[in-house]
């Protein structure tokens, strides 16, 4: 009389717990990636009720510390026009999007406007929408 042992192990591996963990990690990274701000500069834009949007253009930013940026690269005031000219060459119908901090002196904003006017380019002043 032969006795059979019932200590057989199942060779299959269940992936359900691993897929649950991967799914939860995917959700976590998708949610946390939406909290990242796309702008590297911390600008507090003035508010406005008008809703004009420029499709694409060259961004020029002025911080409250009077630092100038063209397409995210810091430039000096005397190099601003040449930096804008380089960035405009890449665009078909260039529009300058001026993003000035609300604490920026008006004289600095008007100076950038004069540079853009000399170049005969269109310009849009970026603002925050009023609530």
Summarize, please.
With about 130 residues, this protein is an alpha/beta fold. It is about 30% helix and about 20% strand.
Textual characterization of the structure:
The chain is α/β, with parallel strands linked by helices and 131 residues long. The chain has a domain at 47-129: Nucleotidyltransferase, domain 5. The protein has helices spanning 16-33, 80-88, 106-118, and strands spanning 47-48, 58-62, 68-70, 73-75, 95-100, 122-125, 128-129. Strand 2 (58-62) and strand 3 (68-70) form a beta hairpin. The radius of gyration is 28 Å and the shape is elongated. The relative contact order is 0.18.
Please name the CATH architecture of the domain at 47-129. Answer: 2-Layer Sandwich
Low-confidence stretches: none
Q: What is the CA-based Rg, rounded? A: 28 Å
What's the N-to-C terminus distance? 88 Å
Q: How much β-strand is present in the residues?
A: 15-25%
Tally of contiguous helical segments: 3
The strand line-up of the biggest sheet is 4-3-2-5-6
Tell me how many strands there are: 7
CATH-assigned fold name of the domain at 47-129: Nucleotidyltransferase, domain 5
How much helicity do the residues have?
25-40%
| SSE pattern | HEEEEHEHEE
The CATH C-level name of the domain at 47-129 is Alpha Beta
Structural class: alpha/beta
How would you sum up the major sheet? 5 strands, mixed
């Amino acid at each position: 009389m032969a006795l059979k042992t019932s200590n057989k192990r199942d060779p299959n591996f269940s992936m359900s717990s691993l897929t649950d963990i991967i799914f939860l990690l995917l959700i976590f990274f998708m949610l946390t990636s939406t909290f990242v701000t796309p702008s590297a500069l911390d600008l507090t834009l003035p508010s406005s009720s008008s809703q004009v949007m420029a499709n694409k253009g060259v961004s020029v930013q002025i911080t409250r510390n009077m630092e100038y940026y063209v397409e995210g690269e810091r430039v000096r005031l005397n190099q601003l026009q040449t930096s804008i000219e380089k960035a405009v060459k890449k665009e078909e119908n260039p529009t300058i999007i001026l993003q000035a901090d609300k604490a920026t002196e008006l004289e600095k904003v008007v100076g950038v406007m004069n540079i853009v006017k000399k170049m005969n380019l269109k310009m849009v002043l970026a603002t925050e929408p009023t609530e």
